[in-house]
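Our working data are protein records whose layout never changes between entries. The record below serves as our worked example for the rest of this section:
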Amino acid sequence: MNNLFLMLLFDQLPLCMVMIFLIVTLLVGLYYSDKTTTLRAYAVGDKQFSTLTLVATTLATSWGGGQLVRDVEQVYDRGLYWMIFSCLSFADVWILIPLSLRMGGFIQHFSMPESMGSVYGKYPRFITALAGIASSIAIIASQINVMSLAISKCIETEQPIYIGCTTVAAALILIFYSTFGGIRAVTFTDVLQFVTFSAVIPLFTWFMFRQTGKSINDIAIFIHNQPKFQFSYVFHFDRNLFIMLSMVLGIMAAIDPTTMQRIYMASSPRQANKVFLYSGLFSFLMIGCIIVASLFVFVSMPTLSTAEVWPYIMNHIPSVFKGCICISLLAMTMSTADSKLNTCSVMVSHDIVESIKQCNIPLFQSSSLRFMVQPLQWLARLIENTSPIWLARLTSIVVGLCAMLLAFCCKDLLALLMLAIALYVPIVTAPFVLALFGFRGSSQTALIGMITGIVAILAWNRWIKPITGMDGSFFCMLANGLAMLAAHYLLPQPAGTGWVSPDQT
């Protein structure tokens, strides 16, 4: 009887490890939830986080679970192409190292849309918030799909309902502590989750090396003889090269509001600069471990299809280490998703609400259209009478549920990533970067650029992408910026617009 019990416990050990991890994460989130009483605390905390804490939460936010799953599969399948792509995928962190020093005029804001509004007005602020929320929902959905993948490796069952229920439970846990704890709960759970996956990934690399049964020299010779890992395979002009470059450029330009939120949490631009410098260095170490681990899997079994890579890994590691991998995937997904939820909450309760309050809608006084405007009037009164922090919490719940629905509809991680980029980069990145470099344009100028970006990405996806296969987010971002500059110099501008010199920092 005792032996049977031990066998059952050993078989379900990964699931037990996952449940313990989820409980610990929930407890940490709840512990820091009781200190959130104002919107400022909910959005940026007390702005007294240590640099090490900010580095941990920045890395935990940047490293989604899809990164590990996707990179192991794609390096195995595409070779040197994807190795270069993986190394460049964190270039946005390096881009923020110099840009963070230009945040002196915006460091006291709560969010990226607020900074946009301080330069371009209420309408660009509103559009920035909407684009950020839509992009975040796509990213959260991809993380929920990775949760499902991780949990499916723990539960040895043919009944998908058990996997679905466990995934929903994990998603509800992160929604719960993110909703009621604010940025403090998110930050300190991120620290726990960062420590977890940063310890497991190097162990994963080492274990995959042991599985090869070969020396480093033998592995290097084997990899060198494979065509897809040779430079001649990559550096020649063909359709795949241009497709990969377009994806890299789009990801590099994705200066998203969640990453920028870490700057607003810093006490000064100099601290933010240090945070992104250390984050960039550590990111290269982590991506190196993942690439090497994928190479070891390829050496062990070079004939697998992409879909067979992770099943092969999970079937050839001990039960305890299988649990560690699943916990690592959950840590990466939850740390990204909870940060996105918090950012969306701030953008609704702080930015969208403020933009609505600043808008005077004449239709509200029109008696002939009362039946149409009454719902808008009711919504406006509800917003005005609702506490911002409770509105933020309600937003977190709604956004989390929307992301869960999207996750059930779309399982393709790469498609969700490119959707998130397309919803955001062509619209927001150009005006924000111009503002950081001292451009002070009118609201009309910013709207012209944003509309140009929206029209450009729709046209690209309709006519150009089906032919070339290239992602157009980066190029549409350039169209946005050029349209703004053209509008500024060709159209009459109000006083106070133009370029300003950077601050002393």
In short: Residues 457 and 476 are 6 Å apart (CA to CA). Residues 8-499 form a domain with the Sodium/glucose cotransporter fold (CATH 1.20.1730.10).
